[in-house]
UniProtKB/TrEMBL annotation:
Residues in Ribose-phosphate pyrophosphokinase N-terminal domain copies: 7-123
Matches recorded under Pfam families: Pribosyl_synth (PF14572), Pribosyltran_N (PF13793)
Name by which UniProt lists this protein: Ribose-phosphate pyrophosphokinase
Keyword Kinase: yes
Signal peptide: none
Family per record: Belongs to the ribose-phosphate pyrophosphokinase family. Class I subfamily.
Amino acid sequence: MSGHGELKILTGSANPKLAEAICEHLGCNLTPAIVGTFSDGEIRVEVGANVRGDDVFVVQPTCHPVNHNLMELCLILDALKRASANRVTAVVPYYGYARQDRKVVPRVPISAKMVADFISVAGAHRLLTVDLHAGQIQGFFDVPVDNLYAAQVVLEYVKSIGSPEDLVIVSPDAGGTERARAYAKRLGASLAIIDKRRDAPNQAQAMRVIGDVQDKIAVVLDDMVDTAGTMVAGAEVLAQKGAREIYACATHPLLSGPAIERLSQSAFSKILVTDTVPLRPEAQACEKIEVISVASLLAKAIHNIHTESSVSVLFTP
């Protein structure tokens, strides 16, 4: 027991399997809680054990259905606050609304900031997340935020694909260049960037590859895969440029709309994702999709937070 009380792990309905895997790594059991829905659609939450004075971690990614899971998280946090938990950490492996982190046109909300306010006001003393879409979202919170990187578990898989001389890490757009460069540096691999531009309104988007991918094993790297349109189009361009094999790595497999059909028919040999969000049944049936778990990474972070040890040791491999 730390100065913050006994360690307790709770989960909502978003990704209970991940919470159970975290508990296995920590050698503890999930704290019982009733999380359901009343007949009128309102969410019901009831913590089933005493948490007074305890150090509680709530595992709940805000993935599809985003609004439902976000509301569940906030109600669980409020229940713990009113049950006199000493410290409550929101473990949100996937942070929904992260792509709405600034005003790109007039008269729109900054939704990522509003979600941060929801979580803070509901009772979170700390946030633990994985691969935030935009790092500056950490500044939207007035409580500590630990943003872990899936590179800790993804790099070992990428190393097994080929030698550093054969690998080229590909950013699907200019915005992901920093992430791709970090992977390439740690692997000793080369770097390529897919440049997308629209020469005129209503014309097809042109895609060019900056870097050498001829006869290389290309690994397209992104923080999430949603409809997979950009990622699949990038794979086609890489194939045209002579890439020998093409892989994809994405931390958050949102896989909405036509994503699974697109990926199944794509030039990718494999698409590596993590279990920050649960796979849809159709995705589980896709032979190209392979899942690795971030449970051990989150368990280490939870242990270090609970014992007041350094969490920064987990930020880089």
